[in-house]
Design a protein that fits this description.
Layout: E1 47-52, H1 56-68, H2 75-78, H3 90-96, E2 101-104, H4 109-115, H5 119-130, E3 140-142, H6 154-161, E4 165-167, E5 178-185, H7 190-201, E6 206-213
Parallel strand pairs: 1-6, 2-5, 5-6
Antiparallel strand pairs: 3-4
Amino acid sequence: MGCGKWGSYVCKDCEVGLWEEEQICPTCCRNSRYGLRHKYCKGDVEGLTCLWAYEGIAKKLISRAKYNGQFDVLETLISNFEILNNPQFFNFQKFLKDKPGVVPVPLHPNRLRERGFNQADIIAEAFAARHSLACNSHLLLRVKETSPQVGKTREERMRSMAGAFEIKHDSSFMIPDSVLLVDDVWTTGATMRECSRVLKKAGVGQIWGFVLAR
């Protein structure tokens, strides 16, 4: 993806094009130690963990997966979950000890048929397997088909996402006490905030966001 040579998607020389991202408050999006929501900020998301800056190699990999259907390239970013051992993820690791349910941000059925896969599902399942957590990819439903969010302002994204998600009411699904909400990219946070609002309304106690890149 970087040098164009045969081999792995990202060779050792090109790994310098992967930059770890600073953690931010999921409400105001300002820098926050450990990715915790500031005490003076209100919101449904307790904290947010972002692994990579959405530029360079990380952006190329995610774009290739999302728009070219080549979802196997995500493995390069997913296989680097070891960076979670960094002290800046202390509170995130503490949250994981409570065994939250892992829930991916869903795609609308029309978009899912068009793309053939949901990249958030792939990330969520890989993370859940690595940390021995339960993954429920059917708890949230996307009931409103929104136009692509690229190029929209924060306010436009928030309006677009209003009412876009619902809980699947099924007696076989238990509402977990805590949820790790997973997506591929954090831009303004509109999508994850709307998902969190719906989850909270359904009875989820704590929610932590997790994305590959921001």
